[in-house]
Sequence to fold (257 residues):
Amino acid sequence: MPRIGIIGGSGLYNLLKSPKSVIVETPYGNPSDMIDTGTIGNVEVAFLARHGKKHQIPPHMVNYRANIWAMKHLGVERIITANAVGSLREEFPPGQIFIPDQFIDFTRRRPLTFYDGPEVYHVSAADPFCPHMNTLLYEASKKMGYDSHLSGTYVCIEGPRFSTRSESKMFRTFADIIGMTLVPEINLANELAMCYSTVATVTDYDVWADKPVDTSEVLKVIKENEEKVPRILQDALPVIAGARKCSCGRRLENAKI
Fold:
């Protein structure tokens, strides 16, 4: 059974050796796509295309609860995700790898929890990302020679539109990068006591800069940098696959009312 799950763009699918597709039924409906199990190096993993393999699901319509529940059902204990983000800081240019350790939620209409009752849990989100996996992913990124940054704040917006200039300027006062897919994915992983880290690729300066965000430019940068995340994963996974050296698995202790 795979202990590590990878959620990201369908381009990561090519990393898997001997992939097998698995259909997982969940209490929350269908996941974004079938989950593919296979190996990267000698590490057994489960891969899910967050937006579907044809990228047909916009960020605000992703069935995050089904995705995370399905991963847990397959035996996954640790989730690594790939995200494309905008930069809210001049010092974090397009092409940089950013591994955040905090987030701020500006989503509006997404189901955020597995605990809708009758059981009630209040799970701490003080440190939502797995510090151990964050460090290992950062070390792998630096080993590859990539311009990388460890720690910072990801602000997640509802989408699918980009920010207004005023919104972007406001977000700059308390966050470093901006995207549309982190929440509630990370909340749900925390609620199931799973480790969670993200490798974010900066694709553009957000609209606080002089030039408005342009989808074609974002896609261009993604294409230019598409080899970075796979290389980081290939280097880090054998180390991550060892024993869990964090407290993420104890998130539910003392959380139930």
